[in-house]
Design a protein that fits this description.
842 residues, alpha+beta, 6 domains, nine-stranded antiparallel beta sheet, seven-stranded mixed beta sheet, 24 helices, 27 strands, 36% helix
């Protein structure tokens, strides 16, 4: 019987990879990856990275994650194996660090083919990206990076040798001439080391320092001295590292997204609402030429330990670090680590010996030149432009601010305040700013003249707290008596709150015995086992409580978290009419207003009276055992500071303190204390280069967690979604239960402020997050009823609606971007949740 032979067909599948930046297409993952790395080295990337292959809607924060996603979902299996056929891999899972859309492709046979070889440019960019990411990692010792590169080089050589052996075996039957050609090819290329240009630390440093976006620190001299070393006197120069402001801004302004943020008009334009520094009276009253692009900067200084404090002579390696941030950016962007820029690094010992003038003179010289003459260049978006720079304000902790400004650094004496001439006796009885004599330029000049002439009171080295003239006064348009900036973190979270909260808890636990310390600790342990929103800021268990002291000491965020949740956790044990509990609630309301992201003039007036009442109440309740601290006095200046410089969160040192963690981690792994400042400065600039190339300065993107695709009609919130998103029931949407947005993490189960009704906040409980477009995400939430505001627990009482009703809100339209935790409680037969706000929301 005759049978027809099978008609065997090989279908060639061509997958095109399209660059979302320049729209170029590539038919192999290797060439596409090299192209993306080239954009990264040029600083063209904008986060999040998007995969638009096969209509995929996945998002990524790193190029390596994008390439791994493409390798898993959009490439042929064994693409790099020239001896085996490839099939399309279809998986229904997501990358751990980002989101991916399931791709439902069919597996089809393909022709045998050898993939296109990696181009030199693409290979080089891959290697450079690897080394840059390693050098930018503060937990990676730099001396390890060459070992990693050399290990990769050996692996490549072994792979090439293995390929040569396999290929020679395949060509044994092809004839002597073909074998000789292949053998000659491998002989010519076997000695080539493609990673040789980055094989040592020296070569890596030279390569990155030649990058046009790298800002190299320069070494400046404090002074010189002689050291006696091995029987001879040796001349030693004491130096510090300085990073040019102009060079930093030139590098940043090559990024399109960064320049667009700079050009945003954040001012409310005379509105009653103050949200940014530009809304304050100081900026509004200054004569700004709107035809000029002027960048306002904020200066910060702090001391920092780099070595283990338990080691001998660890203080020898303490450094003083100067940072700056750009006030033209919205406040939400300024808290990003990539937007906190290094200005100078120096030894703390040198500052004690030579003073701040050497560093400040260098800074003043440059900032005055940039204020008057500016700098010209060709930048993204705006083209050729002259840019001017001005000093807006200086923020530090209280001790560093006094030292930097040339005031006395002891807060137990009179005239400790940089804003007024307060004395220790006055701050115990005067609780309003108008009761103190403010410092003015003329009074300051008179004090400086008295100090220089030696006309001082017997036993004093200062005149009204002024020890010497500050070099910052040489900057046009700036004077330290008109700085109008205080740090709410050090004043409140590390000053007022520990003292007052310890006094309240001492009365409740030791004196009134309403509850015990063990019961308080057990309640908080149980509470934070369920609180997934603020778990990372969980306060430690309290070991002892004395009047004015809480043990153990806590970080600022831990202290804030303890105060915020204490009423909701322990309110059920305290009588309604307890005066000490009422005082703590008064403190909590004060903190809520202080950290508000926006102010009105009416709020400032209310805050002024609230501070006066709070200080007078403290004296009445605890005046016999505790005196008011200097930080209590600083509270009276905060309302006027808000009027002059905008909301206080724009002056918080918390972002700078968090930035210090980069240097502390680096110093613990670098094992090089010959010149700590130089090593740390270069490490930071490598990290800054990587942040500039990868676009981490503009974090207005959303990176979802694991996603899955679902038709709208298959969801329980179909009607709500169709009404807002304007989609059909047959359309597909991407859905996730967690996402990251601008440094914040959202998860299903947390609560959000979604509106306002009858002067009461409206909340929603997150169900999931969906998107139909790559740039717009929506919160799908269960509607909850706001039953009441319980002042005794300082929380809103909410209950889930029955039947369940869903709402869909664009995440950009949320009144408060922070996720909130709902503490479940029982009121009679009703189960409800207590929601405690982070700050006051208008």
């Amino acid at each position: 019987m005759y049978m027809e032979p099978y008609n065997i067909r090989f279908i060639i599948l061509i997958i095109m990879f399209t660059c979302y930046i320049c729209s170029k297409s590539f038919n192999t993952k290797i060439t596409f990856g090299g192209h993306i790395r080239t954009h990264e080295l040029l600083g063209d990337l904008s986060l999040p990275l998007k995969c638009i292959t096969d209509n995929c809607c996945a998002y990524f924060s790193k190029v390596s994650n994008l390439m791994r996603h493409i390798d898993a979902y959009h490439t042929l299996s064994n693409e790099g194996d020239s001896m085996s056929g490839g099939t399309v891999v279809s998986k229904n899972c997501s990358d751990d660090s980002s989101a991916s859309n399931p791709v439902n492709d069919c597996a089809v046979p393909v022709d045998l083919q050898v993939p296109a070889s990696r181009s030199n440019t693409g290979f080089e960019t891959e290697v450079v990206a690897l080394v840059a990411s390693l050098k930018a990692n503060s937990s990676m010792p730099h001396y390890v990076v060459p070992d990693i590169v050399n290990s990769c080089q050996r692996l490549l050589n072994l792979q090439a040798a293995n390929m040569q052996q396999q290929l020679m075996k395949c060509l044994e039957t092809a004839g002597e001439q073909a074998s000789n050609v292949v053998r000659s090819f491998f002989c010519e290329n076997q000695n080539q080391n493609p990673l040789e240009f980055l094989s040592t630390t020296y070569k890596q440093d030279r390569y990155f320092e030649s990058h046009p976006l790298f800002v190299k620190p320069c070494e400046c001299t404090f002074g010189c001295r002689y050291e006696y070393v091995r029987g001879t006197h040796k001349l030693v120069y004491d130096t510090f590292q300085y990073v040019s402001i102009e060079a930093t801004l030139r590098s940043l302004m090559q990024n399109k997204a960064y320049v667009e943020l700079l050009l945003q008009n954040n001012s409310q334009g005379g509105s009653d609402v103050m949200r940014e520094y530009q809304d304050g009276n100081k900026y509004q009253s200054a004569q700004h030429d709107l035809s000029k692009l002027t960048i306002s900067i904020q200066l910060f200084y702090d001391g920092m330990g780099t070595a283990n404090p338990l080691r001998a002579q660890s203080s020898l390696c303490n450094v003083g670090v100067f940072y700056l941030t750009v006030k033209n950016l919205p406040t939400s962007y300024s808290s990003c680590h990539a937007n906190v820029h290094l200005l100078a690094l120096c030894y703390s010992h040198d500052l004690r010996v030579y003073g701040y003038d050497a560093v400040l003179d260098k800074f003043v010289s440059e900032i005055e030149h940039l204020r008057v003459n500016g700098f010209e260049g060709t930048f993204a978006v705006i083209g050729t432009q002259r840019v001017y720079v001005e000093l807006a304000q200086v923020v530090c902790d209280n001790l560093a601010l006094n030292g930097l400004f040339g005031f006395i650094e002891c807060f137990a004496v009179d005239y400790f305040c940089t804003i007024c001439l307060a004395t220790q006796s006055e701050i115990q009885t005067c609780f309003h700013e108008s009761e103190f004599q403010r410092r003015t330029v003329s009074l300051y000049d008179a004090d400086v003249e008295n100090v220089n002439a030696g006309r001082l009171t017997a036993g004093r080295s200062h005149s009204h707290g002024v020890k010497k003239c500050c070099a910052l006064n040489k900057i046009g348009g700036f004077h330290i008596t008109e700085n109008y900036a205080l740090d709410p973190m050090h004043v409140l979270l590390e000053g007022v709150i520990p003292v007052e909260l310890s006094c309240v808890l001492y009365q409740l636990i030791t004196v009134k015995k309403i509850f015990t310390l063990a019961y308080l600790n057990s309640c908080f342990i149980s509470f934070f086992s369920k609180n997934f929103v603020d778990r990372k800021n969980k306060p430690p268990e309290l070991s002892s409580i004395e009047v004015g002291t809480l043990s153990p000491s806590m970080k600022a965020m831990q202290m804030w978290t303890l105060l915020r949740y204490l009423p909701a956790v322990m309110g059920h044990k305290v009588p309604m009419d307890d005066e000490h509990w009422a005082f703590m609630l008064h403190l909590l309301e004060l903190v809520d207003i202080m950290f508000a992201p926006a102010f009105t003039k009416a709020m400032v007036k209310y805050l002024e009276q609230h501070i006066t009442d709070h200080l007078s109440t403290f004296v009445q309740l605890f005046g016999e055992s505790v005196r008011l601290k200097p930080k209590h006095h600083l509270l009276v200046h905060l309302p006027s500071i808000v009027m002059h410089s905008g909301p206080l969160i724009g002056m918080s040192c918390l972002r700078y303190e968090l930035k210090n963690s980069f240097f502390k981690r680096s110093s613990n792994v670098m094992c090089n204390f010959t010149n700590v400042c130089k090593t740390l400065a270069y490490r930071h600039q490598y990290s800054a280069l990587y942040a500039t190339l990868s676009g981490h300065h503009c974090r207005n993107f959303v990176t979802p967690g694991k996603t899955h695709s679902l038709r709208v009609c298959d969801t329980p919130f179909c009607d709500s979604l169709c009404g807002v998103v304007q989609c059909e029931g047959t359309d597909a949407v991407l859905m996730t239960t967690s996402l990251h947005r601008s440094g914040l993490q959202y998860k299903a189960g947390c609560y959000f402020v979604v509106g306002l009704h009858d002067l009461m906040l409206v909340f929603g409980k997150a169900v999931c997050f969906v998107t139909t477009e790559q740039d717009q995400w929506y919160l799908v939430a269960e509607a909850v009823d706001t039953m009441d505001y319980d002042s005794h627990t300082h929380s809103y009482v909410v209950a889930v609606c029955s039947p369940v009703r869903h709402m869909t809100i664009p995440i950009n339209d949320l009144r408060d971007p922070h996720a909130l935790f709902g503490h479940e409680v029982v009121f009679g037969n009703l189960r409800a949740c207590l929601i405690t706000m982070r700050s006051h929301v208008m």
